[in-house]
């Protein structure tokens, strides 16, 4: 007769048998309990089992109870009945610890009894007879008084439960009769989290597709997880803080202050960090991966508009941080932005600390850089790298081992302002980039093409070095001033498909020797980076990362510098004639179009704001007076303007000419960078 078919004396006996059969893992914890149980016969011990909700504390305590009973010990279990948290009630529940020796006391959900913690530690436990073994289970570790008291040093054992290993997770799914073909999908969702694994196993019967491999957690499964693991939250602001923490790489108090400006960021952060499923890392705090996924999926389903708004606010915050960094943005800042863009893609190693550092190329690096190139590419590409090492060594960023100083990877980013016949002849990728840019929308004065030509490392991607390389590319995109085009070259366009969002067309295929490379290009003359990033949908929305297959219709008119200056002068001359301003070439240009509102008023506002900047500089006040008197105060002639200013006509003309030049310069700078770029500078 098998355990499944034999008769049981009670339902409780049957439940215990089923739990015993399905128990997996925790071999180290069981071995420690058995050893402590043996030694406790003539001594005393307290074990503190701690870990986030759903990690298996209750299951482990049930197994401890079984092990203790099998060893002939009296087992006293407290937790399920939850008496009122008073010393009298607790002592009544635990009376057998004093009358039936030797006994084992198991207290689940110890958080219920936290008000009694001092009494338990100082009054109750010291009175237990020798041979007693006590096990507490709590989401939080024992308080500081346990750990700082030398008397408890040899008595207290803290057992921190983590996720199951992959083998133990598979064993649990097998014990729950989940088809092996579905294991990868379930493990992808739940990792090694015991409760998530159990809920997914329970949901298998309801999953569509019979025995097929496809499975995703239902909203009921996600809801059950959140109910068990998170529970109720104190307020809507606490809920928002929790949702932010689930959507970003790590959370800091500063981040909460920036995106939840109406809240007490310090209090919210303190609340978050006390949650049992939050982990502290060097860059902040973050929730357990399963809880992170459940919270994020739940919000995207429950309130997609708020989910997208939160995503946009976070993008805006991180781009602003990177742009206004006094030097270069930190890797933590860039990683936060990259996480929002690529979370779940597998492109990044997502680690907190690195054994590598970014450096310039140095004498003696040539052989190592060429070796890395040959290991990842071909001889023709190595010859091109050698050419750029000689011609533009400053374009290389080398990633060195912090220990040995040896190059472990490099990135070659070229800042190109005009085509060069020799460079185009040597490097067919550069030639193709110029051909495309000049065909679609040529550069204007002050603009450049930023080309990420090569990104190579000794280790396969993803790796710590590739994380640093990606950060360098994001820096290039976010901080670049006057960039009109960004182009990125990839050796395997299918593998790097997520980078296609930075291209406005399918990759241009370029052959170098026996290899084909994909070239993704995007024009920034029409769209600011931060505005474009905010328009990208987060990963859980249907349109996430849907790269355009063809060039989008232009949003703004793109003027050359000469055309732009003529248009500025014409607009100033037409300041008091709205009908002429309405036809100004500046109206469809970015400098006016992105300002928003009625076109003529938007143009007048942009001109006025720019002219007012002259008044703010004592050195340029005279230029400001010449501009305003000439164009904005209905002065009939320039001679009259000079007289009203009390200036000789030649002096007035000099001030006016220089004033017009400065207004054109300031507006051109704004045209290239956009409003946020000008403000940041």
Automatic annotation (TrEMBL):
It comes from the Bacteria. Pfam families: nSTAND_NTPase5. Residues 31-113 form the Novel STAND NTPase domain. InterPro entries: nSTAND_NTPase5_dom (IPR057574), P-loop_NTPase (IPR027417). This is AAA family ATPase. It comes from Actinoallomurus acaciae.
